[in-house]
Amino acid sequence: MTRFTSGATTDVLVVGGGIIGLAVAWRARQRGLGVVVADPAPGGGAAQVAAGMLAPVTELQYGEEPLLRLGMASNERYAAFTAELEEASGLPTGYRACGTLAVALDSDDREELRELHAFHRRLGLDSAWLTGRECRKLEPMLAPGVRGGLHVADDHQVDGRRLAAALVAACERAGVLLHRAEAVELLVAGGRATGARLSTGELLGAGQVVLAAGPRSHLLPGLPEGVLPPVRPVKGQILRLRVPEAYRPFLSRNVRAVVRGQHLYLVPREDGELVIGATSEEQGYDTTVTAGGVYELLRDAHELVPGITELPLVETSAGLRPGSPDNAPLLGPTALPGLVAATGHYRNGVLLTPVTGDLLAEYLATGATPPLAAPFSPGRFAAGPPAAAAVPAGAAPSDLSTPAKALA
Amino acid sequence: MTRFTSGATTDVLVVGGGIIGLAVAWRARQRGLGVVVADPAPGGGAAQVAAGMLAPVTELQYGEEPLLRLGMASNERYAAFTAELEEASGLPTGYRACGTLAVALDSDDREELRELHAFHRRLGLDSAWLTGRECRKLEPMLAPGVRGGLHVADDHQVDGRRLAAALVAACERAGVLLHRAEAVELLVAGGRATGARLSTGELLGAGQVVLAAGPRSHLLPGLPEGVLPPVRPVKGQILRLRVPEAYRPFLSRNVRAVVRGQHLYLVPREDGELVIGATSEEQGYDTTVTAGGVYELLRDAHELVPGITELPLVETSAGLRPGSPDNAPLLGPTALPGLVAATGHYRNGVLLTPVTGDLLAEYLATGATPPLAAPFSPGRFAAGPPAAAAVPAGAAPSDLSTPAKALA
């Protein structure tokens, strides 16, 4: 039997202190559980790079209704979640209820957006079709060539960096212990996860272990084979520009399009930061900013909003999204008793943070899986074909052009 | 009469410790003069951003023979200058005798390069015409569309940052006093420059004052009107990429072209850094890196060397070149006795550093203007039309496309 370091046991050990792990920790602590987060740098991870667009409606695609429901549920919680978090942490989150305009640059794009619009209407979602002229009236900086667009009033934004900092502070204030060390081994005894060994050598016992280590979740030594599907890293490069006072408002809402098959979005923050994202590259655990990534983002953004050329380029960065085999998150108990997953959020980590915190805390406190989480069971890959949560095979995940492709 | 701070007098006070000021200081000190350099951060300035291409031949244009002679003289001194500097400072300068390949991307470019080649031959300069295939044999990463080029064996490179650091060290070792403060006023008494007031309040007396403050030279308070022509700031944005070991040698020599009317050059350093420059923007004292500047450099470099997209983008930066009214440097005594100019080097500051140091030290030590410096007298603007040193009116300075335009 494992001997835990003297006194070092807790109800819940969260492995990985990105925004997902922190939200789970904060919410679990609010349920009265003792919670420890193990992470060398809590608040880091993909949120440091994310644009923070909250876009369940504009990112919708066929075959994804459970994920849509999850995203919508999280989106609906966002205003209250950030208000509570700002109160609890004393820090701003940059939540901005600005809406999103998805535009088409050519007639093919327009056709696809029209199909998405029809799909929205069938699902009873609120989106409005605009002509190119109407788009430019909303956002005068848009290229003259914009052919039409969808205005989604409820797709908003948050600042991933501020969100992470607020979660760190809220956790600390709530009594979550942030253990600034890496979990280097999952401890398993009697067919059950019992804690983790930390890089400090400490052995930390826990009633339940939450694996929230993003694209490194399945790599935790000690994790028995087959318990967690691989979570692959999907690199995203992103740019941060600054809108000088004289140019404001440059954009008033999130603006997105599909340019040359790539998702492009411009997310204007209230403080004048303008985030342009993002590439999507599958080449392992590499976070290098490349000339090509920056070039493509600037080229495509320039096509969509030519005036960006005047803006200062402040930062270029790259992060890794955690992608599960079906690109939907892994939420809830695994086949290994005592081990719970909260990872695989792919492009939706920021959006899904509130609902993930709520659902996982519910499970950790009660032992019952909430219905909203059920389609995202980590065990869904064990039994043959992907479950309903899955993205259709062969479809580019969350690609605006997917409806047509998925139907083809 | 000005009262100098007790004991604070020197033979030569150099205002501005960029590479030009430091080279003058070092060389003057070697002549036995007492030298003080006033600069809050010696070794800073445009050299921190410069690509460091030493290209008097590939940058040649009609009407510029005196500047060509000056550039050639400096280029010829570079190997010995950097060897001596490395010895004196104990630091590397990154001097690399690699040659330069100027290529044409279309038939117009080719025609202009052919004219430049003919001009080289008339002047007895060493350059070789290559077909597109021969260019790609030298540099296999070049775009398939390259139509031909000029190989100039004697146009090399140096690392501006290393050069600056070596000059700082050499000055210190040689006994130049680096006064880390700003000169805030030129002191003038009896119709003669007598020193400067520093930001510390100190009054520093000097037998001769060298103005080497780049694009801020003419702004020094106390400078009588008409003594120095305006030196305008010409912004250059530049990128630094890194060539991973596995990709080396990516380029083996400087590669340049004119793309959409802009000079583009790729300067591969021996340590794997690849510098891509540079924009040329006249908009005051602004060193903001813009989305548009970075975009254009990446777009044009990608057209010339498509494989750059794979390389990490490490740094973006912007600096200010000091441009005189005719874009040729201001070297030697001014109309104000005791005040000597060493500024206005525009795009040629790194190239002209050795010769400027030599010529100015000669003048400071002997009071005689060396013949090579004569065409660059700061007084040349006082007497009507620009002198022989000038770039033809209406020509883009140092533009490879200039021969045709200047003749038109």
TrEMBL record, chains A, B:
Tell me what reaction this enzyme catalyses. glycine + O2 + H2O = glyoxylate + H2O2 + NH4(+)
Q: Name one GO molecular function term.
A: flavin adenine dinucleotide binding
Q: GO:BP terms for this protein?
A: thiamine biosynthetic process
Q: Where is this region: Disordered?
A: 384-408
Domain FAD dependent oxidoreductase residue range list: 11-362
Print the keywords alphabetically.
Oxidoreductase, Thiamine biosynthesis
Q: Know the name of this protein? A: glycine oxidase
Organism field: Kitasatospora indigofera
**Taxonomic placement:** Bacteria, Bacillati, Actinomycetota, Actinomycetes, Kitasatosporales
Name the encoding gene, please: thiO
